[in-house]
Amino acid sequence: MTFDDLVRRAKALVKDGRRAVLGITGAPAAGKTTLAEELVKAIDSEWAAHVPMDGFHLADVELSRLGRRDAKGAPDTFDALGYAALLKRLHDDEDDVIYAPGFERVIEQPVAGAIPVFRSARLIVSEGNYLLVGDGPWPKVAPLLTEVWYADLDQEERITRLIDRHRRFGKDEADAVEWATGTDERNAQIILATRERADLIVPAALLRDLGTPPA
């Protein structure tokens, strides 16, 4: 499998001009964002659009109200139904422009209306951790995805990348290691359990070749 193979497969999801939504899932720091961005870049930034699930993180103020601030990133700390509603709207393809939320890692907060998706976008690439989770509100997501690919980076490299990412965005070494091997790892095990439901497993060698920075 090569990156060019992935590009051809992604483009083929769009049939008769009808909009398709490709989901990319995998554990934290497996390379989902990098893969999504590289696909959109290789295909055409007008014909394809990147709409990450991370914009549906609940804001810290709401996580504090719920008593879930220390579990940020867990399945119940996202607005899964809001994400599903956006995917349905993208599928319905009735609007000239649809605004999706983004996520700003420097402040670790969602940002409303940050990503415009124009009518010309026929392929939407949306990456996130819990696309194939089978409980809670998450089962509403998978039927809205044309295919779901699983980014299967090996555990040791993924943890190293994850610690590096936490440090890059402000955590000290001890906090970065604690978060990566604690909260993040518990979430990773939930995601790993969904691996066999994916339409395609993207191998570690291909993800490593994409290089920079992990997501």
Q: What percentage of the residues does DSSP assign to strands (E)?
A: 15-25%
**The number of domains:** 1
User: What is the count of β-strands?
Assistant: 7
Q: Tell me about the biggest sheet?
A: 5 strands, parallel
Helical stretch tally: 8
CATH architecture descriptor: 3-Layer(aba) Sandwich
Mean pLDDT: 90
**Separation of termini?**
21 Å
CA radius of gyration: 16 Å
| Helix/strand class | alpha/beta
Gross morphology: globular
Secondary-structure element pattern, one letter each: HEHEHHEEEEHHHEH
- Oligomeric status of the shown chains? single chain
Task: Explain the overall architecture.
The chain is of the alpha/beta class and 215 residues long. It has a single domain, classed as Rossmann fold (3-Layer(aba) Sandwich). It contains 8 helices and 7 strands, in the order H-E-H-E-H-H-E-E-E-E-H-H-H-E-H. A 5-stranded parallel sheet has the order 2-5-1-6-7, with helices on both faces. The radius of gyration is 16 Å and the shape is globular.
Quick summary of this structure?
38% of the residues lie in helices and 20% in strands. With 215 residues, it is an alpha/beta fold.
Descriptive key words:
Rossmann fold; 215 residues; alpha/beta; 5-stranded parallel beta sheet; two-stranded antiparallel ribbon; 8 helices; single chain
Which helices and strands appear, and what pairs or packs with what?
Blueprint lengths: L2 H10 L7 E6 L6 H12 L4 E3 L9 H7 L13 H13 L4 E8 L4 E10 L4 E5 L19 E6 L2 H14 L4 H9 L1 H10 L7 E4 H7 L5
Parallel strand pairs: 1-5, 1-6, 2-5, 6-7
Antiparallel strand pairs: 3-4
Helix pairs in contact: 5-6, 6-7
